[in-house]
Amino acid sequence: MRVFAELMWFFRAHRRRYASGIIYLIVVTLLSLVPPALVGMTVNRLVHHQMTAGALWGMLALILAIALVSYGLRYLWRVRLFGGSILLATELRDRLYEHFTRLSPEFYHHHRIGDLMAHATNDVLAIQDTAGEGVFMMVDSLVSGITLVGIMAIWISWKLTLISLLPLPIMAFVISRYGRMLHARFMLAQAAFSDINDRVQEYISGIRVVRAFGQEAWERENFVALSKDVVEKNVAVAQIDALFDPTISVIVGFSYFLSVAVGALFVVHGSMNLGSLTTFTLYLGMLIWPMMAFGFLFNVVERGSASHDRVQTLLAVQPTVVERPDAEAEVPVGDIRFDVPAFYYPETDRPALTDIHLEIPRGTTLGIVGRTGSGKTTLIRLLLREFDLSQGDISIGGRSIYAYRLHALRQALAYAPQDDFLFSLSIRDNIAFQDPEADFDRVVEVARIADVHEDILRFPEGYDTIVGERGVTLSGGQKQRVSIARALLADAEILILDDTLSAVDARTEAAILSALKENRQQRTTLIATHRLSAVEHADNIIVLEHGRIVEQGSHEALLRLGGRYWDMYQRQQLEDLVEQGGHVG
Question: What is the reported pTM?
Answer without folding.
Answer: 0.70
